[in-house]
């Protein structure tokens, strides 16, 4: 393979056997990285194991002249996170980038959602991102460099019905990324998020029980291939992005998006302090013009990606 943007770097991609993770793994390798393709091969709901997807991506990378190794460890435990990163270090001698992409869905409206359905999604997405990131942190500190790329979601950033567990996990990942970016800046370690849009197993699994959901599915399948999300991940793993940290990017077809961070939008003050009644009479009336409406993704990003 010719020298690429991440030549010689060692990149861990969790959930790297299918969909967006597969696309990222393949492009990282095509741009010169040695790749740990981590995937337990579970169903969308996180059930079962199958080493086939990770092995197939490794074979594809090697057939194209690249270098990769499969990891079948689960991200949903501290020991699994340690083992995933150890696979990189034991096989390739170092680790330069972690792409926290592994995820599952347990979609259900909140009033019907069980504690197990909530916890399972949190454990894979949010805790999994922590476990793998934490395992890599000691190596990043020692080598005074490293890049974290966390996969968040428009569900967490904007909102979507039937996904309170997924949204909580994905917005939690934004907070995790920002905390890592602040704490590890002194070690030249950067941490960013990508909110991807793609037609994948996870999107295809969402019930198409309304005309709007069917429209979203048709639009996604037509315009949003997983491969469209890989270039931003490769860029963020590269030295070209050495000064970029703490940001939230979106990839949507041929669009690149920069998301804002939560900031105060309006304030109101009373020198004598507040009572419940004065909040009604004055406070809420002053703040209400800046209330955020109860939007979902398609209210905010309803145009067709082309």
From TrEMBL:
Domain of life: Bacteria
InterPro entries assigned to the protein according to its UniProt record, in alphabetical order: KR_dom (IPR057326), NAD(P)-bd_dom_sf (IPR036291), Peroxisomal_Beta-Oxidation (IPR051687), Sc_DH/Rdtase_CS (IPR020904), SDR_fam (IPR002347)
Coiled-coil intervals, chain numbering: none
Matches recorded under Pfam families: adh_short
PROSITE patterns: ADH_SHORT
Domain annotation Ketoreductase: ranges: 9-202
Family according to the record: Belongs to the short-chain dehydrogenases/reductases (SDR) family.
Listed name of the protein: SDR family oxidoreductase
